[in-house]
Every structure is written in structure tokens, then in C-alpha cells.
Specification:
Number of domains: 1
Strand order of the largest sheet: 4-3-5
CATH class: Alpha Beta
Helix content: 25-40%
Structural class: alpha+beta
Number of strands: 5
Number of helices: 3
Length: about 90
Amino acid sequence: MNKKIPMRSCIVTKERLPKWELLRIVRTPDDRIIADESGKLNGKGAYIKKDVNVLNMARKNKALERALEHSIDDSVYDEIEKIINN
């Protein structure tokens, strides 16, 4: 029996991809924005493709800010970029 692969949509490219190809960004209940590498943190989440170009598009068109309904500091984008590059 085949195991079902969890699929999620990138909020920038609108592509449906397997969950492990995306990075979940979370607005926690105490209103912090963090990258959730485990995919299990509580809070409102949005997925973006693990690609620096996609991250730059998200930064430019404020896609993450709209999805999470919260302003995002540049340091958060820098942190996300570090995670993508590793």
C-alpha cells in the first residue's frame, strides 16, 4: 500500500509540492514570525518553496505578510534565507 504524500501550496508560486520541499513560516500565538523547520509549531502557517528567488519575490510583493497578516522584519527574511541555503 502506498503512503500518501502530504502536499502543500507555495504562497508565492502557487505550486503544489510535497511538504518537505517547502518551508513553513509561522506566526505564533504571541505574534512572533519564525521559520518552522519541524512543520509542527502552533500558529498560523504559510508555506514557501525552498528557493532564494521565491523568497525574494515574497519579500518584494509582501506575500508572507499578507498570508500571516503581520509585518515581517528583515531579520526574519535573513534567517529564512540562511535556512534555505543550508
